[in-house]
Amino acid sequence: MRLRQARKSHILFNNSNLTGNILPQTGNLTNLEDLYLIHNMFSGRIPVEIGSFRGCVNYLYGNQLSVTIPRELTNCLVRIDFLANQFSGSISDAIGRLKNLVIFS
Question: Which residues form the signal peptide (predicted)?
Fold first, then answer.
C-alpha cells in the first residue's frame, strides 16, 4: 500500500480485517489528525514514526498489538485508546505529562 500526503486529516479503517504490521510510512502523513484502526488484526509493535504526525486522536483498540507503547506517541495526544491488545512492558512516564490528554484507555 502506498501512502500519500493529503489535505484530509482522518484515516478510518474500522472492522476491515486488516492484518500485519501498521506501516511506519503512516508517520509520513504529517497532516493526519485522527487515526482509527479499530477491530482489525494488526500485530507487532506500533511504529515510532506515528509520533511524527500532529495526530491528536489514536484509536488502536481491538487489535493484536504487542511490545510497548512508544514514547514518541506522546507528542500531541488528546485521546488514545489501546484496549484489547497484547501489550507488555511499561508505559512511558511521558503519558503523565500530556497536558491535552482527555482519554487514555
Answer: none
